[in-house]
């Protein structure tokens, strides 16, 4: 449903060029969750931003992004505005800067509901409260009136998820959407995302540095290194038999944390501690 | 080193921190875990005096130098970096303000490079503005900046949440090594128990603004008393 073909995104930095994304190709099918993984700085967010043309004009973007038989990179801004948020919705990596500081949380969710689902004011407000409950914000009836700065980091992140849910998009780009959440809430949010995918046959590009999450929800994985795809395949295959030393290293590094160097802890086999890495190690 | 007595913070009707008392000993690494919204960042801000408590006090062994001796790595690196100030200047600023290196330009530049290198960023990043960095790169600048002022007490609020394990491990090792070498004291906030288990000697668990469990790492991890702590330990992301 979404095809990225030979995408390159270069930034100008002083006299030099940063090849943040370098000739990358992959596709995501309807009803599929594709995991996009790679080290910090490998180009994951830049790919996400390039898909929706949210890249500064000074940068050069080439290649094709095919969605519904059209190349998004060649669409004019008014066409893109129609696609952003309604057909393709994005959960940004940095929730605080992507929320509007002068609108309440409730207003921001309601705005989306009225625009995309044609609800009236009252309906939108009620649904916004429900959505906040869905992402486990306590006292949501009261908290809808808060402004973003009054929410904690993890609560802001969950508001972004609520907004994405409100859009009912056809394609979802989620950029590290659960980094601020502990495993208990994280598991619920992931369940929500999987449910959403099943209900609407959504295609999802899920960006994360967490291999535990990848193993749990992604059917396929693309591994990036320095702006290039170094490995791509079915999730099971990547885990059981990573081809690239780079991928092996990413998977292996989990062990250092899941087996801390205390004798009393290593006796427990580290399994208990692998909250984040999941049972994979 | 720091003593917190009956600290409470209300934001309107919301009680973010409720009657917390706690001692942080010189040289320890205290882990703070708890659900999203349980009051961790609010507690951290009050300890640093960035917001004032509704009631209660924070006692510090030498209040006068609090600003320099305490540093915080904010949870949201974006808000702590001025978008119009280059990375190098942002890291160099505390060096100059606190007169940590002789203010010769070369000394400052050398130290900035060192700090960038410590957090695995190329020296050339000194000339960039924050928007030209990835999420995880910005998080690392926050750490470099906090280390720049040679703090004695460092609060780290989810400092590695945006980093992949490979860099996470490097940064945690670095923080551990610096702590041992300079005998620093850490208050380390994280939602990831494997990170806390790796970094901390003692663990405090918060829920709903209150401390529900405190103990040595071994005790808490091997024998959690609270339901929430148990859940954190058990959760293996069953979806
Ligand atoms: N506007 C810009 N100008 C110059 N370089 C940039 C710009 N934006 C990003 N970069 C660089 O491009 C590379 C890729 O950045 P990107 O944000 O896509 O990484 P990422 O994989 O999302 O990393 P993270 O996991 O840390 O969020 C990084 O090295 C970053 O420094
Ligand atoms: N400036 C503020 N105004 C109003 N309410 C606030 C403010 N700052 C925090 N709160 C509220 O106080 C409570 C505790 O927030 P805090 O940021 O301390 O949580 P946290 O434990 O750090 O959560 P997270 O893990 O999500 O970062 C939350 O309900 C939050 O909405
Ligand atoms: Mg990113
Ligand atoms: Mg917080």
Automatic annotation (TrEMBL), chain A:
Region span, Disordered: 262-281
Pfam families annotated for this entry?
Answer: ABC_tran
Name a GO CC annotation attached to this entry: plasma membrane
Asked if the Swiss-Prot or TrEMBL record annotates the protein with the keyword Thylakoid, the reply is: no
Membrane topology recorded in Swiss-Prot or TrEMBL: Peripheral membrane protein
- Localization in the cell: Cell membrane
**Gene Ontology terms for molecular function:** ATP binding; ATP hydrolysis activity
Chief site of localization: membrane
Q: Where is the ABC transporter domain?
A: 2-251
Q: Which residues form a coiled coil?
A: none
Domain of life (superkingdom): Bacteria
What InterPro entries does UniProt report for this protein, alphabetically? Answer: AAA+_ATPase, ABC_Ni/Peptide_Import, ABC_transporter-like_ATP-bd, ABC_transporter-like_CS, P-loop_NTPase
Instruction: Give the UniProt keywords, A-Z.
Output: ATP-binding, Cell membrane, Membrane, Nucleotide-binding, Transport
Which family does the record claim for this protein?
Belongs to the ABC transporter superfamily.
**Name of the protein in question:** Dipeptide/oligopeptide/nickel ABC transporter ATP-binding protein
User: What is this organism's lineage?
Assistant: Bacteria, Bacillati, Saganbacteria
UniProtKB/TrEMBL annotation, chain B:
The record's section on Pfam families has: ABC_tran
Q: Which CDD domains match?
A: ABC_NikE_OppD_transporters
Q: What InterPro entries would the database entry show?
A: AAA+_ATPase, ABC_transp_ATP-bind, ABC_transporter-like_ATP-bd, ABC_transporter-like_CS, P-loop_NTPase
All copies of domain ABC transporter, residue ranges: 2-233
Q: Which SMART domains match?
A: AAA
Which GO biological process categories is it annotated with? transmembrane transport
Stated name of the protein: ABC transporter domain-containing protein
Organism, scientific name: candidate division WOR-1 bacterium RIFOXYC2_FULL_41_25
- Recall the taxonomic lineage recorded for the source organism: Bacteria, Bacillati, Saganbacteria
